[in-house]
Amino acid sequence: MPTRIVLEGPRLEPLLEQVHDEYGDRAKIVSANKVRTGGLAGFFAKQHFELSVELGEDGAAEDPAGTLLDLVDAREDLFEGGEPEPAAAPHVAAPHVAAPHVAAPTVAPVRGEGRTVTPLAIPMLAAPKDQAAPVPPRASVMSTSGAAFADVMAGLQSDLANARRLDEPVRRYENAPNGARPKPPTLAGNPLAADLAALGVPAELAARARGDEPYQAALTALADLPAAPVPPDRPGDVFVVIGELAPALHTAQWAARTLRLDPTQVLLAGPTTAGTPIHPTRRISGPPDAEKRARRMHRGDVPSIVVIDAPLGVEASWTEAVCTALDATAIWATVDATRKPGDTANHLRSLGRVDALAVYSADICADPGTVLALPAPIALLDGAVANPHEWAALLSRRLTEHRAAPAGRSGRETTWR
After folding, report:
1. Per-residue pLDDT tens for 96-145?
2. What is the DSSP string of 382-407?
């Protein structure tokens, strides 16, 4: 005849271990309750757990042992204001149980004589021999006053911040410690900083401007920009330039001179080579052709340069497929500074991977600093390496022009060097 015993203790996990260690497969858990005694109006009560176990004959269990994880997870009742339990003990094997499922009745806590008993649900512990025990759905249990709750909230806030940043241009200058985003700076009392912001320079950079002279103010504002990227120069590297044909070809020719390569060896992926200095035999017709040529390029003794004719507004999937087929070492995109930054940023995202930007028409743009907020670092600025001195020269000219004739606009054409 089965014998029923009741085990008591301050924590549920040691009771479960005791059942497993002392009774093994003879044990069948009948119920588990959390009992509170004493206290005033529900506060300062002492609590312990009562585990009711029915003991049968050795080998009475018919099904293999399941897991007590779900029972351990049911150890706390938040809505009664209980304190968080200590960290759970390592998982232990469950005692064998005869019944496939035993659960405490879903009733309200029983109160009386200074004693409150809260039944704890016991999920399914046993499973068919060839099938793992399913995990029943249940509500997560966590105290809002505990450290675990704070960790979860911090993680959720971090995920939300990351999701929001995906919808914003990635700014190179956001390097606040511990991932904290900087507070919006104030430009009050710094006229040159305000003028730089009017030229499109992000406020976080413009606020760093110091001095009364335009060039020096612009130089201090952008002094901490990271070094401009450079084209890959190892044998077998494949350097890809994407964009409108004319500026993309200018960027490729600049790269050829920088790497001391023959400009006539540049390849073009596009519908035609007409109107370009590229021989028709060096045209890449599409992804299959790009993959075939890439095998030879990656075995070459020098880097290779490929231009992809992909102006703004053209379907980007073909461009991305060509880049993938080429297995490009580095991918740059050309950017017209006079276009709306939002349109440009969307176009760059549609291209997939973009490692750096070659900006053109910045010298005739009303607000050339807006390109600093685009989602890739800037390598070239109107054909020159985009270092702080080049930016300071451009912005100081514009500051001088704005002060002399606020409504005026430079009429100089872009010069490629």
Report:
1. 444 334 444 444 555 555 666 666 554 434 444 444 444 444 444 444 55
2. TTEE--HHHHHHHHHHHHHHHHH-TT
First to last CA, the chain: 98
Q: Are 209 and 301 in contact (CB under 8 A)?
A: no
Residue 242 has pLDDT above 90, yes or no: yes
Whole-prediction pTM value? 0.54
Decide which of 139 and 56 is more confident: 56
At what angle are helices 191-198 and 388-404 packed, to 10 degrees?
100
The token pair at 381 is 């600025």
Tell me the backbone φ, ψ of residue 388, rounded to 5 degrees: -55, -35
What domains are defined for the chain? 3-128 (no CATH), 194-404 (3.40.50.300)
Burial of 96 (0-12, 13-18, 19+ CB in 10 A): buried
Q: What percent of the chain has pLDDT over 90?
A: 34
Q: Per-residue DSSP letters for 84-105? A: PPPPPPPP-BPPP-SSS-----
Neighbours of 110 (CB within 10 A): 12
In terms of DSSP H, where are the helices of 280-334? 287-298, 317-326
Q: Which of 49, 52, 68 is nearest to 8 (CA)?
A: 49
Question: Which pLDDT does position 212 carry in this prediction?
Answer: 81
Burial of 305 (0-12, 13-18, 19+ CB in 10 A): buried
Nearest one of 199, 324, 190, 350 to 269, comparing CA atoms: 324
